[in-house]
Amino acid sequence: MSALLEIKNLHVSVGETEILKGLNLSISAGEVHAIMGPNGSGKSTLSYVLAGRDGYEITQGDILLNGVSLAEMNPEDRAIAGLFLAFQYPLEIPGVTNMTFLKTSVNAVRRGRGEDEMDAASFLRFVRDKAKALRLDDDMLKRPLNVGFSGGEKKRNEILQMSVLEPTMAILDETDSGLDIDALKTVAEGVSAMRDAQRGMLVITHYQRLLDYIKPDIVHILAGGQIVKTGSPELALELEKSGYADYIGEVVA
After folding, report:
1. C-alpha angle 230-203-9 in degrees, rounded to nearest 5
2. What are 214-248's pLDDT values in tens digits?
3. Phi-psi region for residue 100, left (φ > 0), alpha (ψ -120 to 50) or beta?
4. Single GO molecular-function term (predicted)?
């Protein structure tokens, strides 16, 4: 079976500094992978490169989604192709309501895929159903995007975005950052509800606690810009006890 997401010998630089140094990763449809690593290992760089953020230069290697290279695609085309990134720090957009942002995003993706746009009434029913599962009320849908939201509300709102966009490949960049245990459980429930045989997920995290709620199939350790070890979910539990010291310095020059 061919991979849904395949990263081949990926080298990425920011300015003169190489951050990813030959990263290889393959995720099949239906799988949830987790990447863990110490600060500075390249975790956020990986998420930014996957999403197409400016300033991150691929100097070698490739990223394939359903066999198609993402390397030269802009972020909008990557979203149309089925990629979604949940940010570690979701952006605030004053003057744009949450509902307007969601409807505009969904219809932009639908247009890009040659599908009919959703009218206002149909979308309202659609998004309310999705929001209810994440405990987001109508008031939050009417407010400016993420403005005045708590950390937990911002993260739940991003999972709502993922839910309405229905990507084939979801990247969650330290989604647990800043969440209390109740918000973490709600976010994890929303993520877990989207697991299915057609969708892949990559969970990037520093701590094991998120993986108590989002159960990964495979865990990878990223250090020095490379994946230095891959294993079962028990690998995350080992890291919680021993830390990353044993893996720092294992990078192949």
Report:
1. 55
2. 889 999 999 999 999 999 999 988 887 888 887 76
3. alpha
4. ATP hydrolysis activity
